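From the pipeline queue, job 12 of 40. The input is one protein chain; the requested action is below.

Action: predict structure.
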Amino acid sequence: MLALIRQAQQESKAKVFTVLRAVLTRWTSHYLAFRRLLDLKASLIKIAGDEDFRSPADKLFVQGKKESKENARKMLKRINGPNSTKFWADLVSLVRYLRPLSIAANVLQSSHARLDDVILTFGFLVLEFQAMSQLHNPQHKLAAAAVIDSVEKRWREVDQEVFIAAVIANPRYRFRPFARIDQLHRNGICALFERLFKRFFKRMPTSTFYAEISAYLDGNGTYHGIDRALESAESAALSVSNFSRSHGYI
């Protein structure tokens, strides 16, 4: 089968892809395997169509014992049968559902994931599936509702103030992700950090505490030029990433 897939791709002068097999204990591999299956769609349909035109004696897949033949017929019918359009459409939907979940898993399972990554990833999932729920597809709406409900349930169970403060303490974001939340105006942010300071250190902050927060939020004083420094660091990181990709290192 693998040789036939490669041959079909070479004959069509398409990019040659290999088959990926999902690993049960690494569920993000299912997303990659299903996406690869879509990459192989044209080749698989050609292979299934060629099998239909072969005589019983020349069949490559429908052979062996009765059960093996029946399983092969079911597989070929799913790939290129009367209802194959639905199969491929369902696979496209499945890949669409798994993509944002796989991105979230990769971010949150990384060794350098931080608290701000968690809340921002939650927000990413909600936005992705909210957009999906706007499509005129009942299946998309059900999937989106299930994921959003799950994310909101987890969010209700966490110490929200700590996660919010972690995002604000990241100079790349500061208060921008919460600009539309009335409670997180400047005074609200100062009050938030004061509560957390007292929780963590069991004492009141110093008299310069609020001035430091304001200077940080505005990029003044000690934090002057922080935006330019971040842009420079991000540009350097992007250059390294592009170089690594172009040379096949990642």
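Job complete. The radius of gyration is 26 Å.
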